[in-house]
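Recall that a protein's primary structure is simply its ordered list of amino acids. Everything else, from secondary elements to tertiary packing, is in principle encoded there. The following example makes that idea concrete.
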Amino acid sequence: MTPTLVRHHLRQSGSPGSHDPSAPAGSCGRARDWAEIQERMLVPLYEAVYDRVDVGPHTRLLGLGCGSGLALLIAAARGAQVCGVDADPERLDLARERLTPDSSREARGDTAPATVLACGGPERAAAPDGSAFNLVTAFHPVGCVSSVEGLTASLVTAAGLAERGSPVVLGGWGPVERCATASVLRVAQRLADPLRTAGGWRPSGRDDLEDLADRTGLRPDGSGRVACPFGYGSLPSAVRGLLSTGLFDAALEVTEQAQVEKELSEALHPHQRPDGTVWMANVFRYLIART
C-alpha cells in the first residue's frame, strides 16, 4: 500500500464541509461521522509518533481503540503489519473497508500488508504472522476514556503480547490553555454533571500519561507534543464531528439531543470564521513507554 492510496482513502471519506448535516445520527451514523469528519484531526499525532518510533516493514503494530482504522492505514502504508481492536463494531466495519485490499488495488500493486481487525479488547488480538508485537499504540486521548481502570487492564494485556522492550505509545490532550477545543468540550462536562459520571471529557492533568504508564508497569522513555488543529468546513459539520467522539454521550443521556446540539453550536460560534469554516488550535501529547 502506498502513501498515494492513503490520500485516496481520505478523499473518499469526504471533506468535512461535504458531509450531509441532515444524515441520521444513530450509532452507525456516528461511526461514519467519526471516519469522515473527526478522525483525520489526529493525523499529525499519528505521523509524529510513527516518525519517532520508525514504523516500517519491520513493525508489527497493535492498535488499541483503533476506531475506523485511519492510524492503522497510515502504518500499513509504511509497510507495517497491523492489528487493531475496538469495542465499536460499526467503526470496525469502516476500518475493514479501508484496510481490505480490493481487486483494483491489487492490480496496481497497492495491496496492504496482512491486517487483523477484531471487536473487543487486546485479548482478541493476534499479529498477522503469529509473532509477538513490537509496537502498541493507544492514541485515544486518556482524558476521553470513561474508565482509566479499563484502559489500564487493556494495556497490561497488550504489553503481554509484545516483545520485551517494545514501545507502548499513549496519547492525550495537551495543556488546557493550548487547546481551544477545551472551552467547547466543557459544554459536555456541564450538561453531564447531573450524572456525576466519570465518563466524557475532563481537563487533562500534566502527568496523566505518566500516571497511566506507572499503573500499567510500563517504563517512560520519551514524550512529545504535536499541533492537531480541529478544522471543519461548516458549523453543522463541527457539531457532527464532535458528537461522534463520544464525549457528549453522557450529556445526551440526561439532555435532549436538540439542546446538546444547540449549546454545542453556541460554544463553537467564537471559533467560526467569516467564510463559515470552524478552526480550533490544539496541542496533543504522547508518551512512549517500554514493556
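The chain is about 40% helix and 15% strand. Residues 1-25, 103-107 have pLDDT under 50 and may be disordered.
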